[in-house]
Amino acid sequence: MEGNLLSKSTNVVWHEQSITKEDRRSQNGHNSFVLWFTGLSGSGKSTLANAIASRLYSEKVRNYVLDGDNVRHGLNKDLGFSEEDRTENIRRIGEVSKLFVDAGQVVLTAFISPFQADRKLVRDLLAEKEFIEVYVKCPIDTCEERDPKGLYEKARQGIIKDFTGISSPYEEPENPEIVIETNNSTIEESVEQVIKYLKENDLI
Ligand SMILES: Nc1ncnc2c1ncn2[C@@H]1O[C@H](COP(=O)(O)OS(=O)(=O)O)[C@@H](OP(=O)(O)O)[C@H]1O
Ligand SMILES: Nc1ncnc2c1ncn2[C@@H]1O[C@H](COP(=O)(O)OP(=O)(O)O)[C@@H](O)[C@H]1O
């Protein structure tokens, strides 16, 4: 996507809102931030994001899951899987996440987000403690065995081009706040690991 970092909006002036992020947090009784899940297809991002969302919901923490497959049906349906399009995909999700944080919500994002620079761009959009990178780590062999949507098989057959881990790169996070090894832990254990982190860091 050409020139996606250039602003074409001129003569626009920021308007302060009467209700602030702090007001909304205070009314909700909890912080707002992004839990940014990143990892290979089939590593467990969506499964964990949804399991944690249910747990947060039961604890009355307002939250919303943004998922790669779903967002690509609407907001980002004009984007494919070239490096440029993935970068634009993550940039838009970062901006949407920032709006949710401003609205006082906990956002759980489940995107492969394979590039370090793109994830850093989102981190830099947000304040400290508003971006929690969760590396959903799983060997590609296990992801391929799981193959919940049959995509690895199609990628191996060359039917799907530029498939992450097969014909398109995945850059591992260098310094994620949380690492979950889904081939070594159950879904329940992983949920507890994340909830423990959030409580220990006074985020919820
Ligand atoms: N070429 C290729 N590479 C990777 N993934 C592919 C591809 N084509 C389709 N899919 C499906 O799209 C989901 C990934 O979309 P994302 O928006 O998360 O990707 S990215 O962050 O922009 O890289 C991904 O979802 P998950 O399996 O949940 O990760 C796939 O279902
Ligand atoms: N410990 C685990 N954590 C998360 N998912 C697991 C685990 N063990 C097996 N799975 C399975 O792996 C698959 C992961 O798929 P999904 O959550 O869609 O991954 P992603 O969103 O990363 O593509 C699901 O079928 C899930 O049930």
Automatic annotation (TrEMBL):
Keywords: ATP-binding, Kinase, Nucleotide-binding, Phosphoprotein, Transferase. Its EC number is 2.7.1.25. GO terms for biological process: hydrogen sulfide biosynthetic process; sulfate assimilation. Pathway: Sulfur metabolism; hydrogen sulfide biosynthesis; sulfite from sulfate: step 2/3. It catalyses: adenosine 5'-phosphosulfate + ATP = 3'-phosphoadenylyl sulfate + ADP + H(+). Residues 32-181 form the APS kinase domain. The active site is at residue 113. ATP binds at residues 39-46. Pfam families: APS_kinase. GO terms for molecular function: adenylylsulfate kinase activity; ATP binding. It comes from the Bacteria. Catalyzes the synthesis of activated sulfate. PANTHER family: BIFUNCTIONAL 3'-PHOSPHOADENOSINE 5'-PHOSPHOSULFATE SYNTHASE (PTHR11055), PAPS SYNTHETASE, ISOFORM D (PTHR11055:SF1). Belongs to the APS kinase family. This is Adenylyl-sulfate kinase. It comes from Niallia endozanthoxylica. The lineage of its organism: Bacteria, Bacillati, Bacillota, Bacilli, Bacillales.
